[in-house]
From TrEMBL:
Organism domain of life: Bacteria
GO CC list: cytosol
The family this protein is said to belong to: Belongs to the FGGY kinase family.
Residue ranges occupied by any Carbohydrate kinase FGGY C-terminal domain in the UniProt entry: 3-63
Keywords associated with the record: ATP-binding, Kinase, Nucleotide-binding, Transferase
InterPro entries named in the record: ATPase_NBD, FGGY_C
Gene3D superfamilies, alphabetized: 3.30.420.40
An MF annotation (GO) of this entry: ATP binding
Pfam families: FGGY_C
Organism of origin: Conchiformibius kuhniae
Protein name: Carbohydrate kinase FGGY C-terminal domain-containing protein
């Protein structure tokens, strides 16, 4: 995921300030803190983790006129917790170096 975020930053020509997460994995405080440390920016978790179903409900409500517009829907979003980086940038770079080494090793794990 780190490489994807870096590619997105390159495409838009800007660095990421925060990343909003959702889904079951975002319930893990440890995982969210690791991501904040490795990415070196804030990871923001909403109060409602299952936003796929919520998004479908919002779209249905928008279609039938329950919600006026997307701004009204956006105002429903609430922050649960922000995970800020606690690891130094130097340590994060060190960890990522070894992560990339592990990925390269795994790519050649099975002989054909």
């Amino acid at each position: 995921m780190f490489d994807i975020v870096k590619a997105m930053e390159k495409d838009v020509g800007a660095s990421t300030k925060e990343f909003r997460v959702d889904g079951g994995a975002s319930a893990s405080n440890l995982l969210m803190q690791i991501q904040a440390d490795v990415f070196q920016f804030d990871i923001v978790r909403p109060k409602v983790l299952e936003t796929t179903a919520l998004g479908a409900a919002y779209l249905a409500g928008l279609a039938v006129g329950f919600w006026r517009d997307t701004d009204e829907i956006a105002s429903q979003w609430q922050k649960d917790r922000v995970f800020a980086p606690e690891m130094s940038a130097e340590r994060a770079a060190h960890v990522l170096h070894y992560w990339h080494k592990a990925v390269k090793a795994a790519q050649n794990w099975i002989e054909e």
